[in-house]
């Protein structure tokens, strides 16, 4: 996907993927560990992890026979930066609208 922030939001749109990121914490988790905590199959967990990896939200490392997934913070930081920028633009628009509406009341 050419829009990395869009890929981040698309990956985060699914509640199971958001829950997986919450469960990973600082130490990460394996697909088996995540499947124990979620009401979905290990195969579904693997599919969700693939989506998260495609969006750059997780990175994997082999540890023996398991693969451990850890959160990659950069895409989340980019998404937060976009939200802050968009929020600032809307704040400015609403302030201008408020000034305009407030100015009309006195006329």
Task: Write a short abstract of this structure.
With 107 residues, the protein is of the alpha+beta class. The chain is 67% helix and 13% strand.
What is the strand content?
5-15%
Q: What is the CATH-assigned architecture? A: Orthogonal Bundle
- For this structure, the CATH topology is Arc Repressor Mutant, subunit A
> C-alpha Rg, in Å?
20 Å
Number of separate strands: 3
Described by strand count, sense and barrel closure, the largest sheet is: 3 strands, antiparallel
Count of helical segments? 5
- The portion of residues assigned to helices is 55-70%
User: CATH class, anyone?
Assistant: Mainly Alpha
Question: Helix and strand string, N-terminal first?
Answer: HHEHHEEH
- Quickly count the domains: 1
Unreliable residue runs: none
Strand-helix topology:
Elements: H1 4-12, H2 15-24, E1 29-30, H3 31-37, H4 42-54, E2 58-63, E3 66-71, H5 73-105
Antiparallel strand pairs: 1-3, 2-3
């Amino acid at each position: 996907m050419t829009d990395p922030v869009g890929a981040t939001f698309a990956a985060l749109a699914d509640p199971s993927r958001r829950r997986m990121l919450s469960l990973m914490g600082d130490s990460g988790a394996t697909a088996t560990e995540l499947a124990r905590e979620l009401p979905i199959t290990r195969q579904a967990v693997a599919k969700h992890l693939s989506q998260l990896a495609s969006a750059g939200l997780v990175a994997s490392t082999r540890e023996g026979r398991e693969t451990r997934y850890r959160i990659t913070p950069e895409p989340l930081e980019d998404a937060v930066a976009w939200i802050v920028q968009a929020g600032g633009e809307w704040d400015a628009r609403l302030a201008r609208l408020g000034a305009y509406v407030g100015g009309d009341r006195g006329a």
